[in-house]
């Protein structure tokens, strides 16, 4: 979709276009209500600014839609399609790495009570595993900050993809 097409959508259609990037209603509203945008960079700036800060409830809402890293997103939603495409770029992994990733996901969930979230686009599985192991050392407060940043990065990449 072009930026002009996005600008011309009725509000409902624009909301449905943006929501798969990040299902946080306040964020969606800010991005949609910021139209019309002159440039994609303007839309991305609004998306970035609307993502600061996320409340704990907003983070929990967004995390409820994300599959475990290394697992295929279920469903036929646009968000599930985006997640599958992002994780498909990771390529194949050895069984040892898959086992370590599954073990790390479980340890992370036990420690932080939520799914491990990381921007998969542009990263290899070994890099993600290294980040997972590093982040397991975070305090819960520091981890919430990292999760929020990862959500912002994912949302911005998705918005950029939607508008290109």
Automatic annotation (TrEMBL):
Keywords: Decarboxylase, Lyase, Purine metabolism. Gene3D superfamilies: Oxo-4-hydroxy-4-carboxy-5-ureidoimidazoline decarboxylase (1.10.3330.10). The keyword Lyase applies. Its EC number is 4.1.1.97. Residues 7-160 form the Oxo-4-hydroxy-4-carboxy-5-ureidoimidazoline decarboxylase domain. It holds the Pfam family OHCU_decarbox. Residues 68-84 have a biased composition (Basic and acidic residues). Residues 67-96 are annotated as: Disordered. Pathway: Purine metabolism; urate degradation; (S)-allantoin from urate: step 3/3. The keyword Lyase applies. InterPro entries: OHCU_decarboxylase, OHCU_decarboxylase-2, OHCU_decarboxylase_sf. It is an enzyme of class 4 (lyase). It catalyses: 5-hydroxy-2-oxo-4-ureido-2,5-dihydro-1H-imidazole-5-carboxylate + H(+) = (S)-allantoin + CO2. This is 2-oxo-4-hydroxy-4-carboxy-5-ureidoimidazoline decarboxylase.
């Amino acid at each position: 979709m072009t930026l002009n097409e996005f600008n011309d959508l009725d509000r409902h259609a624009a909301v449905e276009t943006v929501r798969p990037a990040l299902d946080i209603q306040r964020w969606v509203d800010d991005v949609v209500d910021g139209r019309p945008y002159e440039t994609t960079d303007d839309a991305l700036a609004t998306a970035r600014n609307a993502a600061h800060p996320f409340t704990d409830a907003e983070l929990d809402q967004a995390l409820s839609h994300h599959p475990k890293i290394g697992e295929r997103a279920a469903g036929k939603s646009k968000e599930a399609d985006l997640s599958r495409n992002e994780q498909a770029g990771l390529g194949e992994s050895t069984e040892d790495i898959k086992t370590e990733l599954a073990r790390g996901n479980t340890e992370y969930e036990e420690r932080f009570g939520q799914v491990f979230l990381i921007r998969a686009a542009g990263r290899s599985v070994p890099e993600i595993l290294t980040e997972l192991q590093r982040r397991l050392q975070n305090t819960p407060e520091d981890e919430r900050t990292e999760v929020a940043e990862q959500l912002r990065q994912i949302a911005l990449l998705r918005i950029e993809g939607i508008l290109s």
